[in-house]
Queue: 4 jobs
Job 1
Amino acid sequence: MRSLALIPSLLMSSAALADIPSVATDITPVHGLVSMVMGDLGTPTLLVEPGASPHGYALRPSQAAALQDADAVFWIGHDLTPWLDGPLDSLASRAVVVELLDAEGAVVHQFREDAVFAPDEHDEHDEHDEHDEHESDVQALDDHDEHGHDDHEDAHEGHAHDGADPHAWLDPENAVVWLAAIAETLSGLDPENADTYRANAEEAQAEITALNTEIATRLAPVSTRSFVVFHDAFQYFEHRFDLSGAGAISMSDASSPSAARIAEIWDAVAEQDVVCVFSEPQFNPGLVATIAGISGLNTGVIDPLGTTLEPGAGFYPALLLDIANSVETCLSGQ
């Protein structure tokens, strides 16, 4: 009889769980932030699996089903995952869709179009001489290009690389703004648990704000030391922590650097006293290693998507710390 007495409470518990919104997210950093807000109430579905490129992706049947069942979808936006536009329209038509780049209060930077971020002020004669002197080195760097350079790269770089830079999750202040937006959206869908969503968001905001201060303190001693990245995905982190990025070897993670672009990076290495070159784990490090080897620079690895980190509520703080550790180590020469 005691077990029968538990049936009403179990049914009430099941009904309460059934009212929790079904949530889908695009990339792991967003999944982590939503997980922090949902807490023990539920787990969001991750659409882009760790290690996959967010710029082009084919949904698995289970992910398409989750999108179709979603009450809410949180994504960075079209600039990061343009392929998701169609599935959102066709599968998630009944869901509340929140594009985080459009959230009120979010900091959004425009793409940087040039290989070298700082103004190039050396005279043309010196530039020409330096290019001649290192022509064989530039060719060597081309030979290490993991993508296999062809004329498509030059055509690609001829197009304007403008618009909003979507890597906005790398500014922790944006995460603080987004946590509030996530909590308010979920509270609107699930008023009974609104206090929990808001309390979870406030706790997460406090954690990230404290981490922001900690990272700023740690990176301040190396903030004036210049570095080069594989592709330009880190300007939000650079701006937030006042770091001195000098340039990007590749325009994007989907293109190969041309000989002209590599020559610009070579000049920047010499002129801006670059001390470190960062690669990313999903790319062959041969090109980065060659640039660093020729120039005698430190090398490091930074991953904007944290592909080796465990998804979930602890992901976003771990991502910030992982990037901060890599930056501090490489710039300090440890």
Job 2
Amino acid sequence: ALFGVLPNTSFSQNVGLVTMTKMVNRKALACGAVFLILCGLCPKLGAVVSIMPQSVLGGAAVMMFASIVVSGIQLITREPLTPRNLSIVSVALGLGYGIGANPAVLAGAPQMVSLIFGGSGIVAAAAVAIVLNIVLPKDKETPQSEADV
């Protein structure tokens, strides 16, 4: 909290980094944190890091965010996609991508709606997925007969 962020903050990039590096060791993460703090406190060290070519940084970012997408797809497909689940995922992803690709769709919305959903499609996708999960009727499970047991 002393450095401007709450201690329970989590970033989705962490999922991609763990997937790419296979490193979940606390000491390695602490070394990375110390290095970032030193980069912020020592401008010369930060300048050395900033001379990294944009193509290298871009390639690493593409790989990291692709890993996040694949992790999300694995999470979604752990259970069979029923028509209900497929509808929830499809509408949420479509809306999230649509707002993210064209934020102008919210131009006519009230300012509060634009403020909440205008930054990216993630908030809208999450809100729609939660609402649809509550509103759409659950799939009926087939009862087991005594012969099946």
Job 3
Amino acid sequence: MDSGTLDSAPLPRGFFDRPSHEVAPDLLGRVLVHGPVAVRLTEVEAYGGPGEDPAAHTYRGRTARNAVMFGPPGHLYVYFTYGMHFCANLVCLPEDHGSAVLLRAGEVVARADLARSRRSGDGDGPPSSRRESIADRDGPPASRRRPIADRDLARGPARLAVALGLAREHNGLDAVWEGSAAGLPRFSETGGAQPEHAAWLTGLPKGTVAVLGGRPAEADTIRSGPRTGISTAKDTPWRFWIDGDPTVSPFRPHTPRRRSTAATSVGEAPSS
């Protein structure tokens, strides 16, 4: 993983007031903070607006579920998917445009111990956030598994949300920090076995979300390609990641689910 210091200055709202496919690569290397846990983003996906992007939740317009995406830029859009876990997005463009960037993966740079505890199912996050990703639900109980590797703590959108303690109740939170200078989060170097840039976060009120400057990815390390696991607009190259970073999740193309032979018009196999 990269080494170096992290900029703790919060990103302004204007940063998000752009098309999602422009914001997305600029988010790589930035730091998302929720409470004491901080994640440096290494993989994201952009989604367009109503009538423009068939893969976006807003493609058919505003609904109760996606209403946050039509609000001001810089807010969190958190949704529940597969009946199992939450995913977090950052809203882009001015109000009424309905666009966002999905946060797919990152490196935990503050309170990895708490992120690991949450991922193991016994953290202090809200009950609705204590859910395991699809990949984690298979196999032996958490108590009998090997410790979760650092690179896997937020490797994938569901894992990232769990590590940060984000769930349904955080949908709509403003991720643009506009508090007083005295309340700004501060990163400080740590020693020992911690990575050089590892940091402890202080000064951010409980329940607050913020996106900090972090350490933006170098232009020549940013890669783009098709978005993961979607069935429509699947060739749109709006997935962006930091090349070679071990926290980036594996690319998985959409695979149609086979219809169950026992499925009927009343109870069909669920679609993806």
Job 4
Amino acid sequence: MRLSRRHFIGAAGAVATLTLWPSLSALAAANDRRMLVVLLRGGVDGLHVLPPRDDAAYARLRGALAPQNARALNADFALHPALEFAHSLYASGQLLPVVAIAPPYRQRSHFEAQDCLENGTASASGAATGWLNRCVAAMSGGEALAVSAVMPLIMRGPGAATTWSPPLPEDVDPILLQRLQSLYAADPDLSGAFARALDSQGAGMQAGSARGARLPQAMAAAARFMAAADGPRLGFVEDSGWDTHSNQAAVLARKLGELDAGLRAFQTGAAPIWERTAIAIVSEFGRTAAVNGTAGTDHGTGGLALLAGGAVRGGRIAGDWPGLAPSSLNEGRDLRATSDLRGLFKGLLAAHLRVGERALETQVFPDSRAVRPMQGLLS
């Protein structure tokens, strides 16, 4: 089957750093909604997470790298087999994959792309504050929490935001690893060895399951705080290690297992608020359509977002799929991005958190009037 271009959506302890959240009792129950943003740093390969089914172009580009035993979602797409819980969410209408999406920055620097995604403007240097922080300032009540050792750019600014760092064991600072990874990736002799070392470290931390990984524990912590009656309405969790220049199949099988465990942990911990919660799982860009010479993929353009939660209208695929034919690829190498991540965020903030259109266009995402909010994301 050859996928055609289609529009899936139309018009339709370190606890001391945690402050006490102000009461939300003055807010109407209908407005007491929560949103969590999960940033997977490193450039997630959306074509590996959500492989197109029976697509000759995909089979030609990926070969043996294509995941085996992927879980069918519909006639066109499947989900990586490690995402067992996510697949059950899709079946219950609570997972919505959004294809071919990226920030407005369309180059291939991790740090510039992440800065653009976090500052909410059209460029990496567009703002010194983050759009989640500016969103808090635009909302009528509530605070924001970043589960992070340091305040990430997305949460920086004068708005009411704080951080909490869980006491998770780790041998090496993941930010340092991420920076080293981009350097080693440029060396054909060392990139493979470095990737194998990273994978070995991750497997050691995992000890045969995702229980020892950072992401599930961070998402469980976010759930505990956000589920409190007076808890933060906005949350942020980050995870590194998604830059898969080599040995991608093994690395992503482990990392996606951790993400799946994180989703399950969040749903369990946030049971009281699950039905009024939306989770946006995003990354700074996608990866090359074709496999490289070290069983991995390199920095690309069009990526994937996953929306989850009881407030999400899932059980379908969203976005505008451009296809993988040679003439459809960006610069002949990447999935072409057809949607701006700011449109996804604006759609969630407008419909879910009731942030006004003017605030979205001028304050939260400055000079973004041309980027229309995505419609039909929520149930």
